[in-house]
């Protein structure tokens, strides 16, 4: 496969439901869509979903980085799928992880299409599989969440927690009302707690039967995390998210025992290959991982998450695949999303070659 051209454009879509968490509130989602054109005229698409509070990248930074490396990429040839990560390593010093992710997915999509095969056939178990996804409950009034949640049957849920304990409790009650008292529940503080708050809130949630806590402190607060791990690590899981961006950060977190679970996200790690490397490192050290997602990801990153799931089935939880449950419009037709049971199966409907999606023709109109 020879690269003929690289282009990218912003994709901004309103959300059907405002998304609010401790460090972010928005009514839209924005990604950078990357397109690779091969010498044979094949188009491969990838998605970069930068979140400044995670990797420091903006939409502008992603596009600028891709434009800068474009002259180097044009004319590059790939003789095998294994050469994709080798090419990415050459441009890694010049791109942030979200930009790398968009580029990687576009290269993989183009490669699969040129081979006239889906990446699921080329890289993973081709047999039919079904994956369960967790519901994610944003901060907000219960009366607005109730009619939304009542349409699903999640077996696992993550609750975004804020400073209002009464609202947190009300949303926990709503979750158990909708999905039953045995539904698995996690809480995500999104860096919003102080040490004093954590020491009060963790026992409160443990008493509620919840023992999984995501990113309770900002990434730099390692001493506070060590104290929490010493006090509660024997009875709870503390999941690194915003503080986990690359393999080196995973090594630091686990070697220093700052957490005991990792939350992987394809976009924040720079794509599937880097996410696999982090997962494998964690597993070799006896630490489990869950597969997360940024709010508002399109079908492209949903497909990438599915591919990761097919390659590493033993994640403790899986998020994403909201499609037009959350987005006013997805980038693909039909939208790639979980069903009312919170499940998504392979092969998915109308799955084609590459990442398997039919991308809307207006995607790169900038």
Mind explaining what this structure looks like?
- The protein is an alpha/beta fold and 366 residues long.
- The chain has 13 helices and twelve strands.
- Strands 5-6-7-8-9-10-11 form a seven-stranded parallel β-sheet.
- Strand 2 (24-38) and strand 3 (43-48) form a beta hairpin.
- Helix 6 (142-149) runs parallel beside helix 7 (165-179), helix 8 packs parallel to helix 9 (222-232) and helix 10 packs parallel to helix 12.
- The longest helix has 18 residues, at 97-114.
- The two termini are 27 Å apart.
Binned, the helix content reads: 25-40%
What's the main sheet like? Answer: 7 strands, parallel
Radius of gyration: 20 Å
Tertiary shape: globular
Helix-strand category = alpha/beta
Helix/strand order:
EEEHHHHHEEHEHEHEHEHEHHEHE
- Could you tell me the mean pLDDT? 94
The N- and C-terminal alpha carbons lie at a distance of 27 Å
Number of strands: 12
